[in-house]
């Protein structure tokens, strides 16, 4: 062993595979593989970003004071208990880093967000998989997986890549069933797509329970994926632990300003939610009509649909056929979903085009 050796748990990590953005031949493509906002970014956020785009020489505010205050004002939270990071991805890594290490266990659902496994293995902890219930989060399976070594439970709600949603009462039951030493992480990357009355109660729990952290992102409905800004909310102690290990300057100056402006763009947020609700329902119904060809839609509250291919045309065949027509969707065999395609709800034209392409593919 002459060369420096990475830790074995690092080499056991399968690198994250991002949604593709190019076709084989470099032809123009319609990218529906990363759950981005098809309406783009609010004009308010674009303006704020432009206004600060030449502020390059100085470090950004390491404490993100204005951003924390804007988030806190928007959600009625204590700004001192808002943590932020290079996307909520970083916040998820901070949680694993603060609470788990070799010998500890972290639980996720069978079809969970790919970053949880990376965050778990990175710190040398062991990933424990709780079985799903027909692709949805099964609270009883999670509770049954808890041991005295469990440190963190990651639950995305709505979940990615399934789109399934766990109701408030079930989230409360999950929290009530966990031992006090287990940190429950409610990843609400898609929460803004829910109708307000469908809130899962996560922020209320995080306000009072010492063992709940909620994470959110500016990458999805706010249309700021390129700027990499996410945040989390938890107890004073949890936030204090995470601050010790975060990158000192995670979020750019222009990005922080754009995020603050994005929170104020109520019309854009509402229009994005409404667009998604309308075209997700339409696309789901169109896929439902292909049921005799073995297509099955998993119920979704997010900005994408997971469609299962249980007939003669496999998900792999459909994925490749879509690619050749310029549509990039997400096929996730590495996450145990070789039988499904996750498709982001795009613009009206993209969604109609995708449905038409799938009809043709299934018809042979
Ligand atoms: C997209 C996504 C995130 C966050 O992404 P960032 O861009 O890093 O903020 C977090 N969790 C889930 C479940 C997601 O789908």
From TrEMBL:
<dbReference type="InterPro" id="IPR050106">
    <property type="entry name" value="HistidinolP_aminotransfase"/>
</dbReference>
<dbReference type="InterPro" id="IPR015422">
    <property type="entry name" value="PyrdxlP-dep_Trfase_small"/>
</dbReference>
<keyword id="KW-0032">Aminotransferase</keyword>
<feature type="modified residue" description="N6-(pyridoxal phosphate)lysine">
    <location>
        <position position="220"/>
    </location>
</feature>
<comment type="pathway">
    <text>Amino-acid biosynthesis; L-histidine biosynthesis; L-histidine from 5-phospho-alpha-D-ribose 1-diphosphate: step 7/9.</text>
</comment>
<comment type="subunit">
    <text>Homodimer.</text>
</comment>
<dbReference type="InterPro" id="IPR004839">
    <property type="entry name" value="Aminotransferase_I/II_large"/>
</dbReference>
<comment type="similarity">
    <text>Belongs to the class-II pyridoxal-phosphate-dependent aminotransferase family. Histidinol-phosphate aminotransferase subfamily.</text>
</comment>
<keyword id="KW-0663">Pyridoxal phosphate</keyword>
<keyword id="KW-0368">Histidine biosynthesis</keyword>
<feature type="domain" description="Aminotransferase class I/classII large">
    <location>
        <begin position="28"/>
        <end position="358"/>
    </location>
</feature>
<dbReference type="Pfam" id="PF00155">
    <property type="entry name" value="Aminotran_1_2"/>
</dbReference>
<keyword id="KW-0028">Amino-acid biosynthesis</keyword>
<dbReference type="InterPro" id="IPR005861">
    <property type="entry name" value="HisP_aminotrans"/>
</dbReference>
<dbReference type="GO" id="GO:0008483">
    <property type="term" value="F:transaminase activity"/>
</dbReference>
<dbReference type="InterPro" id="IPR015424">
    <property type="entry name" value="PyrdxlP-dep_Trfase"/>
</dbReference>
<protein>
    <recommendedName>
        <fullName>Histidinol-phosphate aminotransferase</fullName>
        <ecNumber>2.6.1.9</ecNumber>
    </recommendedName>
</protein>
<dbReference type="InterPro" id="IPR015421">
    <property type="entry name" value="PyrdxlP-dep_Trfase_major"/>
</dbReference>
<keyword id="KW-0808">Transferase</keyword>
